[in-house]
Design goal:
By secondary structure, the protein is α/β, with parallel strands linked by helices. The protein has ten helices and seven strands. It has a single domain (9-280), classed as Rossmann fold, CATH 3.40.50.720. It has a seven-stranded parallel β-sheet with strand order 3-2-1-4-5-6-7, with helices on both faces.
């Protein structure tokens, strides 16, 4: 399963980190940063070929589609055979289904939650028995899980669910000496916007009631890349937090808008915030005259 160069035996005493979704962006940056700081890193992605740069850096890379329990079991067994225990699990793998809720097929909702919600929980269920006291679980959340926006319903709902489950896990795993931290990511440079745009292209029907708002819908899909923070900055800040504190905060906000958007959600009256968001994404002045418009 491991396709990278063999690990240096001297690294056997280092803390072991398992990271999902390492083909690019946040996952790739985290793998590089953890390794640079002396951790023993296992980077995973659906296609190991996408982790060529990590393998060249001597990082162990494993094939893992997080929606397949059998692949999760294989990865954990592989790591356990080499290291016995896992110290840190980073649930980073995820994607976004974008578009008007009226246009999203049920299968797309299921797939969205399968990757962004059910898979992280299944990984946690399988990893915790292999995790020593003092272990750490990092769930990559999003400001979208706090402030929902038009044309991003499935993604916002999935991240809100992950935030809620992280809250529960934080309390349930505390007696075992395992910390659970949610990273409230803002706009972070990655392939996320491009992938989200592709879902819009695939799902937005020419007969959609919202077809005339297609430019605004596509703009929402790309919004995460506007004035985005480099993924390496997120990785460095997160790893530094882990290294410098024995007791981490329940949430760590990183990235552009990771503080401002939650504050708007908290303090602005709901109807005012609705009007702001509707105007931003073309719904404010839009009055369809018939279901066919």
């Amino acid at each position: 399963m491991v396709v990278s160069y063999p690990l240096n035996p001297s690294s056997s005493s280092a803390k072991v980190v398992l990271i999902t979704g390492c083909s690019s962006g946040i996952g790739e940056a985290l793998a590089l940063e953890f390794q640079q700081q002396g951790y023993q890193v296992y980077a995973t992605a659906r296609n190991p070929a996408d982790m060529g740069e990590l393998a060249q850096q001597g990082i162990a890379t494993l094939k893992l589609d997080v929606t397949y329990p059998s692949e999760i079991a294989t990865v954990i067994d592989t790591i356990s055979a080499e290291t016995k225990e896992i110290d840190i699990l980073v649930n980073n793998a995820g994607y976004a289904v974008m578009g008007p809720l009226l246009d999203i097929p049920n299968a797309e909702f299921v797939a969205q939650f399968q990757t962004n919600v059910f898979a992280p929980i299944h990984l946690i269920q399988q990893v915790v028995p292999r995790m020593r006291r003092g272990g750490l679980i990092i769930n990559l959340g999003s400001v979208s899980g706090i402030m929902s926006t038009p044309f991003a319903g499935p993604y916002c709902a999935s991240k809100a669910a992950l935030h809620a489950l992280s809250d529960v896990l934080r309390m349930e795993l505390a007696p075992f000496g395992i910390q659970v931290v949610t990273v409230r990511a803002g706009a972070i440079q990655s392939q996320f916007g491009q992938a989200a745009s592709q879902t819009v292209d695939r799902l937005l029907s020419p007969h959609s009631l919202y077809q005339r708002l297609a430019p605004q819908i596509r703009a929402r899909a790309r919004a995460s890349q506007n004035q985005a923070t480099p993924a390496a900055v997120l990785a460095k800040k997160l790893v530094n937090c882990i290294q410098n504190s024995d007791r981490l905060p329940p949430e760590i906000a990183i990235g552009n808008k990771s503080l401002t958007l939650p504050l708007l959600k908290r303090w602005l009256p709901t109807r005012i915030l609705d009007r702001i968001l509707m105007k931003k994404f073309g719904l404010g002045d839009w009055q369809p005259s018939s279901p066919q418009e």
